[in-house]
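Example 3.2
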Amino acid sequence: MGALLLLAAVLVTASVQASPWWWPPALLFLALGALGVADLTQRTHSVLRNYPVLGHLRFVLEALRPELQQYFIERNFDGRPFDRDVRSMVYERAKGTEAEAPFGTERDVYATGYEFMVPSMAPKPVPDPPPTVRIGGPDCTEPYDMALLNVSAMSFGSLSANALLALNHGAAMGGFAHDTGEGGLSEYHLRHGGDLVWEIGTGYFGCRTGNGEFAPSEFADKAAHEHIKCVSLKLSQGAKPGIGGVLPDGKVSSEIARVREVPQGRTVVSPPYHRTFSTPRELVRFLARMRELAGGKPTGFKLCVGSRAQFLSVCKAMLAEGVTPDFIIVDGAEGGTGAAPPEFADHLGSPLTEGLITVHNALVGCGLRDRIKIGASGKVATGADVVKRLVQGADYTNAARAMMMAVGCIQAQRCHTNTCPVGVATQDPRRARALDVGDKSARVHRFQRATVDSAARIMASMGVQHPDELRPHMLRRRIDALTVRSYAELYDWLAPGELRAGPPPAWAADWAAAHPDRFTV
């Protein structure tokens, strides 16, 4: 930018002192300089603040041919395309410019795998305000009313300070929850007063001893903060189950090191497993201890489902100990991440549909479902996504990718390089300053409100006003060109206590293999 203004000044001088023929290029570069100054001072477009003048090429591509922008600029984190219509909807809702679509659907409704929800001939009024979900089982003394859509786990270090400030301020404005991610509890999570779900991962960042063990007293002190409404133990993540998180050394600034309690400038690798427990029974006991240390606040865990027998082992441990978490967050294999081996992202873990149905049925079959709420995360971005996951067994949903897009992410896939062009996934202060907290927090609020309103309208059109009224037969999938089946037909749905009374044949082997004192392979 400075070179552009210097060149403009040189050309003006040449025009005055040497020849008037220099005036056309001088005026051109003066105009470009003025445009650059305007780009640097505006607060709406982060990419223009980081790339004055040149950043307009993105909008030129968008105006001339959206497909070019989709291919070259806005690719999903894991390399798989994120539906263009969904992406456009997120951006429009965040900006408050969403419009009705002309000509109807562009989807092939006869394609195998096409899913749709069943409208009612007797739709209900849309509830105002939208419904919430009470989180808190019998051992919880401070229950929390969770929104239908919340900010999913994204850590300080992975995201910039300004991105976290915008997400949390948006959550405070809209009355929904913001999951901190496993990277510790920072001032940027607390400054604006948004409701927090404090996530603890295998690295115990923010509550660890010098050798990386869990520090109970430090955890208790921080969990007592009034803005922390729930605490969550991360077992695994959908995009990379079975391995720990990685924060490259270039992103471990002095501030990140202080928050995570790790050495500055060194790559931070979370272990793939927890040191505080090694069996399902020990896991359940640790959850009970976390809830006690947190003063009775809702306590749960997050996982990407793998073996059904392993999850049933945890259920048997709950029954044996008489202890249950207040919530379980199911993270689908389609979930995103800023850094993970492609083989893990593409080939490990259950997709969200299978994971949700497994967890829901296991809890129902064990007679525990009424004590535990289920959250769902993994490519949740629209009101239809929310309702679909509620039908499949969730009580509420979380979104990460869509929330990042609401704060300005253009999915440049440079999260791991510290060179995010819009200041979302970087610890470079110069790049991060491009993200205006006031503007982007309003976008987060607008996106969440519009999406939840959409979910409430969809449910009302289906003849229900609360997620508790949704049933599997209300969601259908095309099996082939001539066959449509409901989810009630496609999957087995267990009755309350059925596993304990006598498991059905499809569950019998896994139920027999499950043991509360070992994670069955």
